[in-house]
Amino acid sequence: MFESAEARKILSTLKTNLERKIDHADTEVFNIIGALLQLFDIAEAADKQDQVFTSDEITDIGEQGLALIDDLISKLALLQLESEKQQVEQIALVIAQWIIAHRGTLTNIQSVVNGLAYLSNAVHDKAALSQLAMFMGQAAHACSDVIRHDLENTNPMRPWRILNINRGIIATRSHDLELMSTVFPELIQAIPMDAPGFFKEGMSEMVRLDYPEPVRELMQEFFDRTQAPAVH
Fold first, then answer.
1. Cβ(117)–Cβ(33) under 8 Å?
2. In angstroms, how far is the first alpha carbon of the chain from the final one?
3. How far is 172 from 175, CA to CA, in rounded Å?
4. Around Cβ 83, how many Cβ atoms within 10 Å?
5. Could you give the CA distance from residue 209 to residue 207 in angstroms, rounded to a whole number?
6. Which residues pair with 143 in a beta bridge?
7. For residues 174 and 107, what is the distance between their CA atoms, to the nearest angstrom?
8. How high is the pLDDT of residue 3?
9. Interval 119-142: pLDDT, tens
10. Other residues' Cβ atoms within 10 Å of the Cβ of residue 51
């Protein structure tokens, strides 16, 4: 779904563009780009040679890659290069897909969630939305126990909440009833405190955006399931 060749192209183009925009004496940005390219070299060479990494090794390599992505994004944000920052967030999705494909664990999902949020706003084809929601589910299942335990559940901007809420929104936009029937129970389990608000907002969207009746009925079912009974 997300190609390493495309990630390399983004990094190479980014390097060329930054050489025109910023002082090349600011070597840290270019060092990070170089480190990311080296990481892709390692990953691709291992795949071509059928080298077997343990799940812990995959996790460590992926963790290093996503940390580099976070560092690069921070640098680009300070330089007010928003377009370039969004491009780098898409590279986080390539790294996440590699971790998932090799049965590693995602221990840091901030840039992954941001990349998915940006991508979801650009996708409108319903089949592509279904595919995106399925990938988001794979990412959620690959998250570490620390992330999945959701200890910061009072923070509405925590990546775990945003990942699950956005997955629910994408599944709804796909109009794929089978997918929604999978995603909605998992959303309730993943973020139980936030689920009632999601389905309440979903019911409002059903009317405002004139969703098909089967989609409305399924949203209504989960809305009813998650609303607390009235106290008499």
1. no
2. 52
3. 5
4. 8
5. 6
6. 106
7. 28
8. 76
9. 999 999 999 999 999 999 999 999
10. 11
Instruction: Output the six-digit token pair for 187.
Output: 């959303």
Chain centroid, CA 189 distance in Å: 19
Which tokens belong to 45?
Answer: 């060479």
Closest C-alpha among 156, 202, 196, 160 to residue 180: 202
In whole angstroms, give the CA distance from residue 65 to residue 76.
17
Instruction: State how far Cα 59 lies from the chain centre.
Output: 16
**Amino acid letter, 193:** M
Task: Give the number of other Cβ atoms within 10 Å of residue 177's Cβ.
Answer: 14
Residue listed under structure tokens 């126990």:
145
> Tokens standing for 199?
């389905």
Distance CA 227, CA 195 (A): 9
Please list, in sequence order, all residues whose beta carbon lies within 8 angstroms of the beta carbon of residue 144, skipping any fewer than 6 positions away. Answer: 105, 106, 107
Task: Please give the model's pTM, rounded to 2 decimal places.
Answer: 0.92
Give the single-character DSSP code of 124: -
Cα separation, 170 vs 164, in Å, equals 10
**Distance of alpha carbon 91 from alpha carbon 84, whole angstroms:** 11
Q: What DSSP character marks residue 198?
A: H
Residues of the chain below pLDDT 50: 230-232
Measured over the CA atoms of residue 65, residue 158, residue 56 and residue 134, the dihedral's sign is negative
Chain centre to alpha carbon of residue 139: 7
Query: What is the chain's length?
Result: 232
| Contact (CB, 8 A) for 24 and 30 | yes
Place of tokens 């494909």: 101
Q: Residue 151 has what pLDDT?
A: 83
Tokens representing residue 63 in the block: 């963790």
